[in-house]
Amino acid sequence: MSYDFFLTLAGHTDDVSRAFRNRGVLQENWLLITATIVISSIWLGLYLWENLQIQRKASADTPQGLFYDLCKTHRLSRTDISYLLKASEEHAHEQPALVFIDPGILHLHASDGGTDARYYEELSKKLFQR
What we know:
Blueprint: H1 2-10, H2 13-21, H3 24-28, H4 30-58, H5 63-73, H6 78-91, H7 103-110, H8 117-128
């Protein structure tokens, strides 16, 4: 019984080898494949560059270094960091890390009624679990 199976399989080896020899699929889609590889490489490079910049800023022994270290610890996005920096510039310019200690700073921005008030409210919930 297995002998018949192997004979049947052996009769189709030409079809299989022709399918592997046909490289038309790659030749027709080389532009799409190349574009995908280039875009993926650029995205990976930018991702690694951003992480390197945040680590470099966090390793500095300054108030800003503490701020970026806390941002990294809380796994905040680039947008979150920019909003926190904006809030800290207005209320605690010399010590931006106070944003992580004093929930009142974010509460002031959330109660302003501006266009970013909802985002500050979400940040406050994220950082202070309220």
